[in-house]
């Protein structure tokens, strides 16, 4: 076993974060007049293993990413902040209490057979530390279900000063410490969501900030053993055409990949969570699933290096059926990366309604979740036939949606 | 975003055609000065008739063009004819080989760096490309050069060369020529293969960012990178190792929209260049682009030796060329089993601090 991997294994065994720091040699320092004195030479940490990156977690990150990106499976995004979860609960007449949030999340993670179609579940911090009513930690429930636990690590969107009324994502302060804690608790991947607004530009400032923040987060996450999901969501809001969406998406992703490279992020150990390339929600011309697939695959082929193992699309307000149909259209022929889903609303909407907060409905609600997951699993393999789904057609788009 | 101009469909089709598995590019675009060195090495005078004769030898070698999808010309050669009066572009056209043209005008030193360079040739490039298109060329090539040493390549050198390549690529596409994007990182140096991989990753990342910024249509381009190998002064490694590191580097940097990656040989011997390419194609891993060759020295070295400038040696020389072309064609399919030894096939073609 390579030294880096062996050290990583030893670190896990002892619970310590033992890191092999792959230091950059002097040849990579800025400028041409780099000091050559013996003193400064001593301060440079000798390279232990040139191929060691990502804080020594290289092999584990590869494995985790590969596991999440397994055939026929995708991610259940259930990391709604307390405020957002409150909106969900309110929509079915429930109060936003910790007990209700716990009950709802328990319903989701204990759904029998969920692990056949779901490879990872993104949790909010509160949920990562919660347990079932019997006292079994949610992370253990998920692990037993063969589902990798993940954790939302960003601290939300705030106004970006100097921009055209755009937002930026906070969360870098103390991120390394938090990631290490989450890893200890059992999380193995992380997620950070920033947004780009087409009606507001986007300005170059907003794009640069979004991409750089994602790159910094990704490097820190990998350094602490968490596979970073890289999510620059290009919001659906707006009247823009699908061509305009493609134009913005190409620019955003080029910038993201450039900054990821500059931050020495290991691409084999990341996952992407892009928005599909569609017209804006208020655009006059709609697009068929085949058109969405054509444009989205064009974007991916032009921007995503094959070393990235998986692309897990967000649903961003599409109806449950739309999200499944579009994913299916993208998987009609082999792709150089796993093309799958990381859905929240598009997996939970019907489930929530069916549950309505009633324990008697829990069984049926869980079945609905697994059913929806199964349909998306089929879509991931390009085998979805499009059942007669009524409520699932409901658009989940909310104008000016704040997560 | 990618600019879809009036030549878009043609560019995409041409790039795809050049990247057909089983075939690759013959780089025959040595400048007059450089071809002079080649001719001198076999005691042949550097006059136009000899330059023409050498190229005719290559383009009419029986069976060889089956393995060649494109030929890069130097400007003089684009307008030359075979002995029977047939223009070279037509000789190639008859064999379904796409003619290409070198369009850069050489390198210039970047002040304030440790001898690093940027590549020149943007002035009037649009008009020149349009003329070359008229003359039958359908792809172009521009060579940027970087080197590895303490402090090199510097961020400036990487940025300047990436931008230069992107600007060139954009102008080519506007004028109907598929741009071959060539960011060569010289093999010179004592560095190990890990260092080569790290530098190549950084350079290619910068190149593709610039191509994106300049709205270049990736489906209508080809990449001509160096393989990832140890430096010329470092111990050699097996072809399988070169293959592993090279393909890993490309997987991390080259979007699948690029139809073909046509490696430069950069001083490797003929046999090395073929073995390394073969090993890459034999690898069981994600390779959504064609992996092929764009060789100059590594296709012509033994041919030149066999020719020696003598008419009576043409047949033997053409056989030597066929051997290399066929071997490399097989290598693009991972099916190369090793060629019979030809004089000079294993000879290193490395020239320290090589000036093209």
Automatic annotation (TrEMBL), chain A:
One Gene Ontology MF term: fructose-bisphosphate aldolase activity
Cross-referenced PROSITE patterns: ALDOLASE_CLASS_I
One record GO biological process: glycolytic process
GO cellular component, one term: chloroplast
Gene3D superfamilies assigned: Aldolase class I (3.20.20.70)
Catalytic activity, reaction form: beta-D-fructose 1,6-bisphosphate = D-glyceraldehyde 3-phosphate + dihydroxyacetone phosphate
Domain of life of the organism encoding this protein: Eukaryota
Annotated metabolic or biological route of this protein: Carbohydrate degradation; glycolysis; D-glyceraldehyde 3-phosphate and glycerone phosphate from D-glucose: step 4/4
Chief site of localization: plastid
Enzyme class: lyase
Key words of the record: Chloroplast, Glycolysis, Lyase, Plastid, Schiff base
Database matches in Pfam families: Glycolytic (PF00274)
Record's subcellular location: Plastid, Chloroplast
Enzyme Commission number, as recorded: 4.1.2.13
Database matches in NCBIfam families: FrucBisAld_I (NF033379)
Sequence similarity: Belongs to the class I fructose-bisphosphate aldolase family.
Name the UniProt record assigns to this protein: Fructose-bisphosphate aldolase
Source species taxonomy: Eukaryota, Viridiplantae, Streptophyta, Charophyceae, Charales
TrEMBL record, chain B:
Keywords linked to the UniProt accession: Cytoplasm, Glycolysis, Lyase, Schiff base
Keyword Cytoplasm applies: yes
Pfam families: Glycolytic (PF00274)
Pathway where this protein functions: Carbohydrate degradation; glycolysis; D-glyceraldehyde 3-phosphate and glycerone phosphate from D-glucose: step 4/4
Primary localisation category: cytoplasm
A GO term from the CC aspect: cytoplasm
A molecular-function term among this protein's GO annotations: fructose-bisphosphate aldolase activity
Catalytic activity: beta-D-fructose 1,6-bisphosphate = D-glyceraldehyde 3-phosphate + dihydroxyacetone phosphate
Enzyme Commission number(s): 4.1.2.13
BP GO terms, sorted: glycolytic process
Database matches in CDD domains: FBP_aldolase_I_a (cd00948)
Subcellular location: Cytoplasm
Keyword Nuclease: no
Organism domain of life: Eukaryota
Family stated for the protein in its record: Belongs to the class I fructose-bisphosphate aldolase family.
Entry protein name: Fructose-bisphosphate aldolase
Organism: Chara braunii
Organism placement in taxonomy: Eukaryota, Viridiplantae, Streptophyta, Charophyceae, Charales
